[in-house]
Design goal:
Largest sheet: 5 strands, mixed
Shape: globular
Number of helices: 4
Structural class: alpha+beta
Radius of gyration: 14 Å
CATH topology: Alpha-Beta Plaits
Number of strands: 5
Bound molecules: flavin mononucleotide
Distance between the termini: 27 Å
Order of helices and strands: EHEEHEEHH
Strand content: 25-35%
């Protein structure tokens, strides 16, 4: 069964750009092996990640990620069965720094600063669709 999990978390105090590069490298290596695809955004000190794949694999991966001390305050924002994947070409895609994508972040935010913790599931889905179509991605 194919599912999609969307969660947010905050970077830990000691977080650096090197940490982000390491997370992406590990994600691309590990996710491909278990058939998980997805995307990771980092803006305003907040991660927003969408993971999609087999229910058991996504669950296992999410619990593995929860144990990572490089982030805190994780919150599942949406968990749903999906008919097909959104990120078919990425084990883990990542967005370019916020400035280049600022208009998309603002379009779906209630306030001037990005805060996915307050976004509804419907808004999150629209946000990821637009990021995929019009965002500037690193990977
Ligand atoms: C916000 C965030 C998202 C992450 N996403 C993934 C992911 O999608 N896949 C993955 O394998 N590791 C991800 N990681 C990294 C894992 O927590 C872990 O460091 C990595 O899988 C390496 O684990 P290993 O040494 O057991 O292989 C993420 C970490 C953070 C902080």
């Amino acid at each position: 069964m194919l599912i999609q999990l969307t969660y947010a978390s905050r970077i830990s105090a000691a977080f650096t750009n090197t940490d982000l590069a390491k997370i992406l490298a590990a994600s691309q290596r590990n996710n491909a092996r278990v058939g998980v695809t997805g995307a990771l955004c980092l803006a305003n000190g907040i991660f927003l990640q969408q993971l999609e794949g087999d229910r058991a694999e996504v669950n296992r991966l999410y619990h593995h990620i929860l144990a990572d001390t490089r982030h805190r305050e994780p919150a599942v924002l949406d968990f749903a069965e999906i008919p097909s994947r959104r990120f078919t070409t990425w084990a883990m895609g990542s967005l370019a720094p916020l400035d280049t994508n600022r208009h998309i972040f603002l379009k779906y935010s209630r306030s001037a600063s990005f805060d996915p913790y307050g976004m509804s599931a419907t808004t999150l889905q629209a946000f990821f669709s637009e990021l995929l179509a019009n965002g500037e991605w690193i990977v």
